[in-house]
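job 3f2a | input accepted
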Amino acid sequence: MEKTCICRCEGVFLDEILQAIDEGATSFQGIKKRNRIGMGHCQGRTCQPIVRDILRKKVGSNSLSELQKAQAPVRPVPLGKL
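job 3f2a | predicted structure (82 res):
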C-alpha cells in the first residue's frame, strides 16, 4: 500500500483513504468519519483538494458540493485569548 501522507495535521496516509473508499465512503465527510482527515489545524485546506481528486478518480462522483467548510475558529486560538 501507499505510504504517502495526505493529511499532515492528522497523519492520514493514502492507503487509509483508499481503504475508507473501499469500505464504502463516497464523500469527504465519509472519509473524515473513518480517519479524522481535515480535522487538524488547517481544517482541510491542504488535504481536502487532494481527497476530492482521489474521490473523483475512484468513485467518479461529480456531486462533490458537500465539501467541508472551515469551522470556528478558522485558525488555532490559545485558550488564554478567549
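job 3f2a | The mean pLDDT is 82.
job 3f2a | closed
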